[in-house]
Amino acid sequence: MHFEANPPGTEAVVRVVTRMAELPADAWNALAGPSPFVQHAFLAALESTGCVGSDIGWEPVHLALFRDGGLAAAMPLYIKHHSWGEFVFDWAWADAYRRHGLDYYPKLVCCVPFSPVPGPRLLARNDADRGMLIQAGLKLTRDLGCSSFHVLFPAEPDHAALQTTPLLHRSGFQFHWHNRGYASFEDFLAALTHDKRKKIRQERKKLAGLGVTFRWVEGRDSTDADWDFFHRCYADTYARHRSEPHLNRAFFATLRETMPDKLLLIVAEKHGEPVACSFCMKDGERLYGRHWGTLEYLPGLHFETCYQQGIEYAIAHGLAVFEGGAQGEHKLARGLVPTATHSWHWLENPEFRAAVDRFVEREADAITHYIDELEGPFRRENREPA
């Protein structure tokens, strides 16, 4: 695919790059920052192991802005032929297009595949370059005949730059845990309301009575057997929902080889035999809960493996935030609280663009009302001011 744009009044050129391997890893990572999900190695692993590709509806068309021969800005970008693996749900928009005899797919999506994790999307050092990437994304949308252009889960600098564009803003939220300087897990529990603190302690006591213990396995210390077990659990979770996992065993093997210090497995063992496992990623500030599975149902095992152990790890390692993944009001009882997320959307069809604009405005009001009605997990004296 050939695409090249020279932004007016600049000496820069924007090109489409269909393989991460064609881009310099050091220059990309310098723009991306610490988030593991936009690191060159993570995105390249998705491509090299066949987790993304045109044959499965995730066609890479990354935008790269070059200045004086060097990579000055970039955007992870995909042509999508469906809406799976995005976690900003636009199925109703696609259905509305279909009912009016129009094609919603293909569309152009700036995101990290299968990873609803807020972070950098417009990889640039200043708003001028972010603006160039946005304009290049809009131009590519038209050149390819796509219905729309979407930027999912951008971080604050990107969010601020997008506010100056005609793209439509869509509000969302996830449940994140925030470290308030807890000295230990018990210190954290003391901040919760009595009923929530009691429930977690009871669950932990029951699991201990069943002989369940936990191991934190750092990526650099992990073995093939650890990853074989995790992937067995991960695939079983999908099988229970009659679907296939998005990420294959080769993908996790590649991550273990290329970015081991960003990986964590939480392994639950019953009388010394593994029964469940969760997979997390991390940087110097955050732990990101990603996938889990279990081979045996035990009461409270999901909550402990996916949330409480992650929180305890974050406290022990001085991390500021634990992101528990998309959706899930049940996380509130575990000390994770609503945190705003964002996405931005451009629809080429002006009538549908106006309709979606009205929709996202109503949706934002509904989300605000919903969050206001939630009962927080913390004792009154430990709640953050509104």
From TrEMBL:
InterPro entries: Acyl_CoA_acyltransferase, FemAB-like. It comes from the Bacteria. Signal peptide: none annotated. This is GNAT family N-acetyltransferase.
